[in-house]
Amino acid sequence: MSKRLLALFAALIVVLTACSNGSSVGESASDAAPAVLAEEAGNAANGGGIDAPDAETELVVAKQPTSRQIILNGTLVLEVDNVTEATDAAIDQVLAAGGFLAGENTNLQSQRPSAELTFKVPPERFTPLLRDLRELGLVLSQSSTTEDVTERIVDIESRIATAETSVDRLRGFLEKATTVTDITDLERELSAREAELESLRAQLRSLRDLVSLSTITLVLDAEPPAPEITGGDVEEAGLPGFMSGLRAGWDVLVDFGSLIATLAGFALPFLPLLIAAGGFLWWLRRRSADAGPGMVAEA
Asked: Is the pTM here over 0.85, yes or no?
């Protein structure tokens, strides 16, 4: 009988101990949840939701490649004899170099056909392809730009590593949370951190895509058509002819008449003085002529 009592007593002690441990775990998770949320909120206020780099982040940064991450973009404008043939030749060159056609805008219905082609090519083929494409026609303009995004990529990768650590911590505390309030708060914070993490990953993918494939924009313009000259357009085309000569002679005559009229208008205010001076000179000459014979007779 005493052995049964001892066995029952031992079993009761084991059950009570297990219950006590479960309660303490739940209480620790519930007590830790506000502290975790406060810490995560502080991190968000200090760094836009990203914790300061820890040892794991520094390790990730240390593993980054030493080569520079460069985005290459080029634009080439050509004047060609035939837009369709030049387009096909350009596409063939890009495909042979390991690139592809990313976009095309062609207008063949206007008097001067044109096409705008966007190519994605391997960075190591960027410069040789630009040189080869120049041979398709007359170069009207060319420009190239480079952008070094090495620091941006390293920074985003470190922020991703930190955000992943933060998300893992929140998930761990969420699994141990027992109260509805703690679960709601942790889920809300976890959703915000996961959305931020996905945004960083999208930024990193975009930058890596731009680095892995350079962009070449090729604009092809056809030569302007020669103007058609008809009989009525001889003067407009600048060719010599009877009408053009007659018009030129008439213009000279009009200009000469304008010059004469201008000189006459300029001299008109002086006309009375000129008449008076001429009359006075005539009178002096007449007097001298009359006085001459008289003086000779007296002598």
From this structure: no
Kindly give the pairing relationship between strand 138-148 and strand 114-121.
Answer: unpaired
Beta strands in 124-258, from DSSP E residues, in sequence order: 138-148, 214-222
pLDDT reported for residue 42: 53
Q: Render 211-246 in DSSP notation, one character per residue.
A: HHSEEEEEEEEEPPPPPP--GGGHHHHT---HHHHH
pLDDT the model gives residue 58:
44
Domain of 115, CATH number, reads: 3.30.70
Q: What are the per-10-residue average pLDDT scores of the chain (299 residues)?
A: 51 48 44 52 48 44 64 96 94 96 91 94 95 95 94 94 93 90 91 94 93 95 71 52 71 78 76 78 76 53
- Domain-embedded: residue 14: no
Instruction: Give CA 127 to chain center in angstroms.
Output: 20
On the CB side of 69, CA atoms within 13 Å amount to 17
Judge contact between 185 and 37, C-beta under 8 A: yes
Residue 116 lies inside a defined structural domain of this protein:
yes
Query: Which tokens hold the place of 213?
Result: 């494939």
**Virtual torsion, Cα 42, 51, 165, 27, nearest 10 deg:** -20
Domain extent, residue 76, equals 70-149+218-222
Structure tokens belonging to residue 98: 């390991």
- Domain membership of residue 78 (yes or no) is yes
What CA–CA distances, in Å, run from 86 to 83, 115, 117, 133?
Answer: 5, 9, 11, 9
216-to-74, 97, 149 alpha-carbon distances in Å: 5, 13, 19
Residue 262 lies in a domain: no
> Domain total for the chain?
1
